[in-house]
């Protein structure tokens, strides 16, 4: 058993003790990746629950799957060596072994399953508490996502459809072994109209927004960038700079010991100071990330507290502008994992934290 797996097993055992349970059942794709230190249980990339499940008791760690997935999980993912005991069902009755394993147990689970108690919120918090090894993988993933975004954004041209731009972004991610689980594109007036712009056949005239949430090793990293052909209009620039002020406040105040409510309030105050007091109402502001695009949202009244080693992706938006990077919380400072070198930035000083945050502006192509 490797050190990362042992850390996670210990967290699971503490959760069992807290609930007085015999076993923890993990069926979500994100939970499977977390507990196995990066393995993959899905076949359909859009599914929430995978084709393999984990059952952890105080004495044993079981992996229940069907005879289609078992060879890959055993031979390529090395899960038997990690300490998982495979229990294999035929594909015609894929839950046979799992039902037998859980029979008579007082179980907790990350999804509704039989009589198990749903502790999904607590599992999400465990997934958001990263080990040093996960932090290193996040650093690599952040650079992969940044490289994919930079390459795609610089290849965009007027006349391309949003579908074509999405294909560029998705292709650049896949080249780097990153799965684009969120791939949003808006052009021109759609940037002002929609906060979650699924790509369409609309063709780019001058202004494009590209949004990527990329998954590798189960971890999910997010980044957004804007591109404009020709000089950026003054109103668009005003909105981007205002969004940058919010973004810088959120990043700077996401420090160990701060509650997500406190961080949210800092961002909310900057929306008001920038002259857009109600824009926060039209889209969530982001939050802690891990094995889901957002494990915990920054919400008014949230008591969740920032801790060292967590990763966050804030995504403030004002109609016509969006900003998003993924950061890693360090003991002394925050590290932006998705920096794009040679991209125009604005440096914003946050006096209370005595830091300067570089926020990405629109890439103007002339």
List the helices and strands and how they pair.
Blueprint: H1 3-19, E1 23-28, H2 29-35, E2 49-57, E3 61-66, H3 70-75, H4 79-82, E4 85-89, H5 96-102, E5 107-109, E6 117-118, H6 120-128, H7 132-155, H8 162-175, E7 179-187, H9 189-193, E8 207-216, E9 219-229, H10 234-253, H11 260-273, E10 286-289, E11 296-297, E12 311-314, E13 317-318, E14 321-322, E15 325-329, E16 334-336, E17 345-350, E18 355-360, E19 363-365
Parallel strand pairs: 1-5, 3-4, 5-6, 9-19
Antiparallel strand pairs: 1-2, 2-3, 7-8, 8-9, 10-11, 10-12, 12-15, 13-14, 15-16, 17-18
Helix pairs in contact: 7-8, 10-11
Radius of gyration: 22 Å
CATH architecture term of the largest domain: Alpha-Beta Complex
Tally of separate domains? 2
Q: Which range does the strand content fall in?
A: 25-35%
CATH topology name of the largest domain, in short, is Creatine Amidinohydrolase
Helix content: 25-40%
Instruction: Name the shape in a single word.
Output: globular
**Mean model confidence by pLDDT:** 97
């Amino acid at each position: 058993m490797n050190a990362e797996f042992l850390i996670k097993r210990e967290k699971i055992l503490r959760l069992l003790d807290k609930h007085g349970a015999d076993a923890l059942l993990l069926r979500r794709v994100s939970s499977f990746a977390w507990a196995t230190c990066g393995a993959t249980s899905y076949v359909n990339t859009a599914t929430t629950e995978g084709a393999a499940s984990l059952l952890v008791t105080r004495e044993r760690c079981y992996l229940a799957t069907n005879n289609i997935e078992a060879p890959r999980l055993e031979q390529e993912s090395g899960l038997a060596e990690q300490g998982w005991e495979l229990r294999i069902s035929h594909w015609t009755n894929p839950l046979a072994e799992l039902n037998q394993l859980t029979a008579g147990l007082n179980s907790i689970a990350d999804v509704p399953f039989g009589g198990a108690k749903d502790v999904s919120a607590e599992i999400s918090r465990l997934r958001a508490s990263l080990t040093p090894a996960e932090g290193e993988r996040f650093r690599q993933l952040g650079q992969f996502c940044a490289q994919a975004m930079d390459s795609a954004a610089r290849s965009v041209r007027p006349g391309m459809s949003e579908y074509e731009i999405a294909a560029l972004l998705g292709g650049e991610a896949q080249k780097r072994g990153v799965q684009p689980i969120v791939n949003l594109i808006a052009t021109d007036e759609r940037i002002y109209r929609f906060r979650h712009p699924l790509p369409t056949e609309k063709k780019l005239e001058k202004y494009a927004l590209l949004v990527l949430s990329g998954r590798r090793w189960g971890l999910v990293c997010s980044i957004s960038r804007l591109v404009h052909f020709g000089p950026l209009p003054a109103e668009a620039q005003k909105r981007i700079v205002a969004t940058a002020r919010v973004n810088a406040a959120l990043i700077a105040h996401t420090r160990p010991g701060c509650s997500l409510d406190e961080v949210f309030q800092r961002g909310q105050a900057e929306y008001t100071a920038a002259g857009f007091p109600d824009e926060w109402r039209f889209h969530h502001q982001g939050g802690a990330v891990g094995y889901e695009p957002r494990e915990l949202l920054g919400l008014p009244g949230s008591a969740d507290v920032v801790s060292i080693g967590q990763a966050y992706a804030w995504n403030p938006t004002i109609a016509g502008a969006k900003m998003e990077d993924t950061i890693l919380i360090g003991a002394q400072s925050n590290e932006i994992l998705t920096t794009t070198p040679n991209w125009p930035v604005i440096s914003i000083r946050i006096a209370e934290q005595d830091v300067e945050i570089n926020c990405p502006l629109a890439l103007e192509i002339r």
